[in-house]
Amino acid sequence: MEQQQFKIIIADQSHQDFARIICDEMESSAKARGTGIAKRSPEYIQEKMREGKAVIAFTEDGIWAGFCYIETWSHGEYVANSGLIVSPPFRKSGLAKMIKKKIFGLSRTMYPEAKIFGLTTGLAVMKINSELGYEPVTYSELTQDENFWAGCKSCVNYEILMSKERKNCMCTAMLYDPKDHYEPEETTQDFKKHSKLYERFMRIKQWKLLAPFLKHHVEDNGVPVSKEGNGGGQRKSLFHRFHMFFNF
C-alpha cells in the first residue's frame, strides 16, 4: 500500500465512536501474539482523544486503520507512546511506522523536555523505534511512577515482572532522551547491524523468564549464547548495553 492511501491525524472528540473497536483490536492482537498488554477501556481511549493526545489513521475511503496515544508519568518527565495498533487488513503496509512517527512528533511538540520510552516484545517495533533515535535501556531508566507499573497488572506477564522486582520482563525497554541521545542514523545503523543478535537474545530472555513458571520440565535444546556478541565493531556501545540487560 502506498503511503498516500492513509490519512493520519490528531484524534479529537469526533473520533470517540472508534474507541470500542480500538480496544477490542488491541486485546485481540495481544492474544494472537501470546504476549501481554495493559488493557484500556473505551472511556480511557475517548479521554485521550478529547485531550488531543492520540493519533488515528484512516484510509482515503474513511476506513479506520490504526491508532496510538500518549501517556505521561512522573509529572511529565516521562512520556510513553502506547497502544499502537493497526487494523489487520492494513498490517505490513508500513502504516505502523507512519503512526509511530506521527505520535513521536506529537509527543516532542507537547512535551519537548520529556524522555520518551516504550516497552515492546516485537522486533518490528524495536526497528521503528531505533529509526526515531530510541535506544535499548534497563527498566531502571524508565519512570518509577507506581501508576505506570500498576497498568501492567492486566498483563499476562505481570507475575514475571514482579518476580524480577520490576527489573526485567518479557518486554524490551527503549528510551529517547532529548538531552542525551544518539542520532537516529546511529541507532538505525546499530539495529541493522545487530538485528539478528537482538532477536536471538530476546528469544533467550523470554525462555529464561518463562522457565520458572512452567509446570513441567522442557528439554533445553541448547542454543548457545555468544559471549562475543557485538562483533568488535565501532558501534558496540548500544549493543553491549543491550547484552548486559540480560542479568537474570
From TrEMBL:
<protein>
    <recommendedName>
        <fullName>GNAT family N-acetyltransferase</fullName>
    </recommendedName>
</protein>
<dbReference type="InterPro" id="IPR016181">
    <property type="entry name" value="Acyl_CoA_acyltransferase"/>
</dbReference>
